[in-house]
C-alpha cells in the first residue's frame, strides 16, 4: 500500500472528498490528523464501507433519489464513491449517467446543493482567466470535459444544468478509463438558454438570458479553449452535448491545434464502427462491400456515417468520394437529396440524386427496397421507425442483415430487437443503444443483444490520447481503437453471440482501446512522449487510477498532498 503526505488536519480532511476516508482512517491516522473524537471508534475497511453505502442506496426507492444519494457520496468521499460503483458497474452506471442523469439535469436548479465543477458564464467573460486559474491552480489537469448544454441526452437545452453531464462524463472516464479524478475537471459553458421553462423559473441558478450565438458565442468559447491550450497543452478537451452545428464547427476548428474529442460525433461513430466491424467479421465481408442506411441525420448519425466512411478509406484504400456512395442518410423528411431545400453543409457530401426513385419524397421503406442495404443504423429517436415491412424487406435481400437501432432511451428505439430477430427468422446481427434482454433464436438458443454503448470505447480513446500526450486525436487513432474493440467481439468466436463485449467488461476493454490508440499516436509521430510502442502497455498500467485508500502521513510542513488512489 502506498503512503502519501497530506497537509490537511481535523475537519479539513474530513470535508475533503479527495482525501476523506470516513470510518476507514486508521488508529494512527486518527491521532496524527486530529480525528480522535471526530469519528466513532470502529475502524471499517473499504469493503465494509461499500456494503453499508450499498444498503443505504437500496433504501432509495427511485432512480433519481439513488442518483442524488450517489452525488452526495461523491461530494464526501471520492474513493468510496468510485469503489461502490465499480463493484456494481452495470447496475449503477445508468443511475449516474444515462438515462437517470437526464432527469437530474432537467431538475438541476431545484436539486442544487453545492457546485461540482467550473462555471464559465458569459457576463463574466472579463474574469474568465481568473476563474479558470482559481479552479486549476496547482493541479496537473489531464482531462477537461465541457458542455454548453444545448443538446443534453435527448432532452435538449438545459442551460447551466449542463454541468451535470460534464461531471457524469468525467466520472465515467474514471470508472471505466482509470483516469485520476483529481486530474479531471468538469466545465459548463453558460451562454444562456432558449429553454422557456428555465427562463421563467425563479429558482433557475444559471444566467437567465436567451442563448448567445454567432460571433459573440465563437469569441467566448475560443477564449476558453485558448486558456486550456495555454495552461494545459497536453490535456484532452472533451466536448459534450453541444448543438449539432456548434458541435461540428468546434471539432473542425480545433482538432488540428489541440487534442479535442466530441463523444456525440466521434464516440458514437467509433463504437458503431466497432459493431459493424465485428458483424462483417461474422459475415466474412469487407466494409467496402456494405450498403449502409443511416436513419437519423443529426450529430450522431452524421458522426457514424463519417466514421464508417473514413474507416473504408483507411482499410480498403478507396477515395472519400467513392466511400460516400456507400451511404444513404434518411431523416424525418426522407432521403437526404440534393433537391431538398436547406440541407446542412455537413450533410451535402452524402446527399443523393433523386434519379432512380419513383417519388420526390423518398421514405425509409422506399430506400430499403431500392438499394437493398446490408447495414441499417438507427439514431433518429423515432420509436418504431424500423417497421416490420422495413425489416422484412431488408432480410429478403441480405443473408445476415446488420440492424443497429441505437436511439436512447429504450422507449425511443427504432425497433425492439426481439421483433427484428423474429421478423428476420433469427438471421439479423443486432445491437442496440440501450440494454435489452436476450432474444430467442429459432433453435431455442438465446441471442445476446449487444449494447452499442459509447462507454465501451470513449474512455479508452481519451485515455490513449492523454497517455500519449497526443497533440491531436486523429481519425486513424480512433479507427485503431475501434479495431481493437471489434477484435474483442464474442461473435468472432460464436456467430450467434453478442457483437460487442459485455458492459461489465468495459474497464478491461477500454484499457485495450487505450493501448491501441497510444500505440497509433506513437506510430504517427503525434505523441508528446518519447516511448517505443512496446512500452505503452506497461506505461498504461502504471497510469491507471484505482479507488483504494493509501496510508496517510501528516505533512506538518504543509507539503501539498497527492491524490488518494494512486498506486505508488
Automatic annotation (TrEMBL):
Residues bound to (S)-malate: 408, 453
Cofactor dependence: Mn(2+); Mg(2+)
Alphabetized SMART domains for the sequence: malic (SM01274), Malic_M (SM00919)
Domain Malic enzyme N-terminal: from-to ranges: 74-255
The entry's keywords: Lyase, Manganese, Metal-binding, NAD, Oxidoreductase
Keyword Cell membrane carried by entry: no
PROSITE patterns: MALIC_ENZYMES
Biological processes, Gene Ontology terms: malate metabolic process
Binding site for a divalent metal cation: 240-241, 264
Xref: Gene3D superfamilies: Malic enzyme, N-terminal domain, NAD(P)-binding Rossmann-like Domain
Annotated GO MF terms: lyase activity; malate dehydrogenase (decarboxylating) (NAD+) activity; metal ion binding; NAD binding
Keyword match Oxidoreductase: yes
Domain Malic enzyme NAD-binding stretches: 265-522
Cofactor stoichiometry and binding remark: Divalent metal cations. Prefers magnesium or manganese.
Family affiliation: Belongs to the malic enzymes family.
Subunit structure: Homodimer.
Full protein name: Malic enzyme
